[in-house]
Amino acid sequence: MMKNRLVLMGVSATLLLGSATAYAEDSVEQAINYRSALMEVMVWNMKQMGAMLKGKKPFEQATFARRARDLNATSHLDILAGFPEDSVDDDSDARDEIWLDWENFTTKLDNMRNKSEALARAAASGETEAVRSSFSELGKACKSCHKAFRK
Ligand code: HEC
User: Fold this and answer.
1) Disulfide-capable partner of 51 in 42, 56, 63, 84 (CB 3.0 to 4.6 Å)?
2) Does domain 31-149 have CATH number 3.30.365.10?
3) Regarding predicted confidence, which is higher, 91 or 55?
4) pTM of the predicted model, to two decimals?
């Protein structure tokens, strides 16, 4: 009887450990999907605006302002929730430096949020020069983080 209970305890401990590992892998994959999706939303809006600024698409003030507003809203979502500690795998381009230098990573995120806010404001006011310069500033903020923290 005693022996059976010990065996059973051993079995359930193994099951628990097994599912905890599966959960961890699952949640890493979900975090990577989540952060990639947010990045994709931002780049789509960047490209739409870029095409208008370069004259590849007709410049429409209201549409441009909408793209800038959506990008700004996305940048203010909980992006850090998509970067739980050590959430790396073969499908991801995230570098370990993110968690080794978390403060620098979050500073770059805050910087992007400030720049996207500035762009949204400029786009709403429609001042062409301010739009152009804040668009370029935002692009630099994206690149600066990618350079340091993306493979
Ligand atoms: C605070 C750092 C940081 C900022 C700021 C940032 N990114 Fe990223 N971005 C990353 C990291 C890290 C990855 C790699 C994620 C991965 O592969 O797991 C990434 C990945 C991407 C990807 C690839 C997504 C995919 O499909 O996997 C795109 C596109 C992208 N970023 C666009 C942008 C744009 C556009 C901006 C600016 C508006 C931006 N990012 C700002 C850190 C940042």
Assistant:
1) 56
2) no
3) 55
4) 0.89
